[in-house]
Design goal:
- The chain is an alpha/beta fold and about 575 residues long.
- The chain has three domains: about 140-280, Rossmann fold (3-Layer(aba) Sandwich); about 285-470, NAD(P)-binding Rossmann-like Domain (Rossmann fold); about 470-510 and about 520-555, no CATH class.
- It is about 45% helix and about 10% strand.
- The protein has 25 helices and 14 strands.
- It has helices at about 35, 50-55, 70-80, 85-100, 100-110, 110-120, 125-130, 130-135, 150-155, 185-200, 220, 235-255, 265-275, 285-305, 320-335, 340-345, 365-370, 380-390, 405-415, 435-440, 475-485, 490-505, 505-510, 520-540, 550-555, and strands at about 140-145, 165-170, 205-210, 260, 280-285, 315, 350, 355, 390-395, 420, 445-450, 455-460, 460-465, 465.
- A seven-stranded mixed sheet has the order 8-7-6-9-10-11-14, sandwiched between helices. Strands 1-3-2-4-5 form a five-stranded parallel sheet, with helices on both faces.
- It is globular, with a radius of gyration of 24 Å.
């Protein structure tokens, strides 16, 4: 397998290179003339050399000056920085992706800290809200409720046949913004861009999918520009049958591909994960990826707070996919650290929209009841903090300003260094800001957030908040799964990913109060995670490739670099 090898047939071709074959230096089926300039997969724009212009019939179709890729990046950035808003910057970058794929990935890779908040959270949330209005060119693959019975045949229309990773959503729970229907396509497109930027998975191995099963968003149903089906969401058997047909078609059309579920509503997310995880190479990033990021942050925070993992008590605000996912992985980690299952579970508490999850409540789902402990009913978060006395407070509820001053003050009263993670996205949904967490705790909080916040200065000390972004985990997990050709994705792989991510937090990061590494190191972080995941896949007997002498060297050699090939 060669993750840097892209099939260079025309879109729609069924040809492909074998998994171990390197990209040939030239190809007889390369588009010619204006067609290559209109094809983002092959277009080099003003970087086509004189020899390439002669061979490909490009003289007269380009200005005469040949520019280096570095000069092209300078031009892109000059225009990018002239944009007046983040959504305009998003449009600018997506338009570049539509014109010149390699240049897009080079720009984003070289400016990842500046670009990540644009191509993903928080700006992608606004992009999804406005997706129908912003529509320029189709991107990704749409499967609708009208396509029952023909999904397998439809997948043959995808132009790149060697698919290794698929991100799919039904658009019902986009970030913290709710049901955005077909406009949720921005999420799988953005996630898969991060697979390429952060972990070097070739873009032609990536397939973004939107399952359009309707929407219950009345504003979208009334919008004359809405691009999705104008009907209520499928539920029950009809919904399950459509998803099952899709999963079956994926297994037949792209055997061995990793299938990542993204931004499904809680009930469907858990049901799909449980139904598929033992028969398909799959995971749910909202459940498992978020959990791994949070656990990595806790591991790193212990270097600031002191103590051991087994000393911690967690209060998780939000008992949906993220909250329950974090609770489950934390219990597994506490057991690995030596606690008995019941003791480990007793260290993890949930707080939902109706208050603290306790045994006296009669409204609990089966998933929540596993974390219902013996305590009196408690509806307020400050009271819950007083009752539970947590060392770690994690927000995953999508409720802005849930962490009030009284909540943070109480956490600071109970702990010399309270750990406060406000994970909800986008920024408008964050449980508190970095400035509030540091200010209300007199600078003692160990803070991280889902969306980025600027550094905070209190007196003579400046704190740099870490961003607990899933981009730290899922690309590396995916790369490790692809490189090892793992048959399944397990919770142990996510625990391995969490440990690997925490190990990448340097002393300088810790001194600044940051519990995640700098984003500029994301590719080396993803490589470390991929190695840990691949080694766990091999240890568990799930890898379908021989164990190499050096996993790191093996995987590093597979990672895609956004450089132009030579066409002559």
């Amino acid at each position: 397998m060669n993750l840097t090898a892209a099939t260079l047939e025309e879109p729609g071709s069924t040809g492909r290179h074998s998994a171990t074959e390197s990209l040939p230096p030239s190809t007889p089926v390369l588009p010619h003339g204006i067609r290559i300039l209109q094809n983002p997969a092959y277009n080099k724009g003003t970087a086509f050399t004189e020899a390439e212009r002669e061979a490909l019939g490009l003289h007269g179709l380009l200005p005469p000056q040949v520019f280096t890729p570095a000069e092209q990046v300078m031009r892109v950035m000059a225009n990018y920085r002239r944009k007046a808003s983040d959504i305009e910057r998003y449009i600018h970058l997506i338009s570049l992706l539509d014109r010149n794929e390699t240049l897009f990935y080079r720009v984003v890779t070289e400016h990842i800290e500046e670009m990540l908040p644009i191509i993903y959270t928080p700006t992608v949330g606004q992009a999804c809200q406005e997706y129908s209005t912003l529509f320029r060119r189709p991107r990704g693959f749409y499967i609708s409720a009208r396509d029952r019975g023909r999904i397998d045949a439809m997948l043959a229309n995808w132009p790149w046949p060697d698919v290794r990773v698929i991100v799919v959503t039904d658009g019902e729970r986009i970030l913290g913004l709710g049901d955005l229907g077909a406009q949720g396509m921005g999420i799988p497109v953005g996630k898969l861009a991060l697979y390429t930027v952060c972990a070097g998975v070739h873009p032609h191995f990536c397939l973004p999918v939107l399952l359009d099963v309707g929407t219950n968003n009345e504003a979208l149903l009334r919008d004359p520009l809405y691009t999705g089906l104008r009907q209520p969401r499928l539920r029950g058997g009809a919904y399950r049958e459509l998803v099952d047909e899709f999963v079956t078609a994926v297994q037949r059309r792209f055997p061995g591909a990793l299938l990542q579920f993204e931004d499904f509503a809680n009930a469907n997310a858990f049901a799909l994960l449980e139904a598929c995880r033992d028969r398909v190479c799959t995971f749910n990033d909202d459940i498992q990826g978020t959990a791994a990021v949070a656990l990595a942050g806790i591991h790193a925070a212990l270097r600031l707070t002191g103590g051991n993992l087994t000393d911690q008590t967690l209060l998780l605000c939000g008992a949906g996919e993220a909250g329950l996912g974090i609770a489950r992985l934390a219990v597994a980690a506490l057991q690995d650290a030596g606690l008995e299952p019941d003791t480990a579970r007793a260290r993890c508490w949930l707080f939902d929209s109706k208050g603290l999850v306790v045994q006296a409540r009669q409204d609990l789902s089966h998933a929540k009841r596993a974390f219902a402990h013996e305590r009196p009913l408690c509806s307020g978060l400050t009271s819950a903090v007083e009752t539970v006395r947590p060392t770690v407070l994690i927000g995953a509820a999508g409720v802005p300003r849930l962490f009030s001053q009284s909540v943070i003050t109480e956490m600071a009263r109970l702990n010399a260094r309270p750990v406060v993670f406000a994970l909800s996205n986008p920024t408008s949904k964050s449980e508190c800001t970095a400035e509030e967490a540091y200010g209300w705790s007199e600078g003692r909080a160990v803070f991280a957030s889902g969306s980025p916040f600027p550094a905070v200065t209190l007196g003579s000390r400046t704190w740099v908040p870490g961003q607990a972004n899933n981009a730290y985990v899922f690309p590396g997990v995916g790369l490790g799964v692809i490189a090892s050709q793992a048959a399944r994705v397990t919770d142990a792989m996510f625990h391995a990913a969490a440990r690997a991510l925490a190990a990448e937090v340097g002393e300088i990061d810790i001194e600044q109060g940051r519990v995640f590494p700098a984003l500029r190191r994301i590719r080396e972080v993803s490589l470390a995670i991929a190695v840990a995941v691949a080694e766990e896949a091999y240890r568990a007997g799930l890898a379908r490739v021989p164990c190499p002498a050096d996993w790191r060297q093996h995987i590093a050699a597979l990672m895609y670099e956004p450089t132009y090939p030579s066409y002559v």
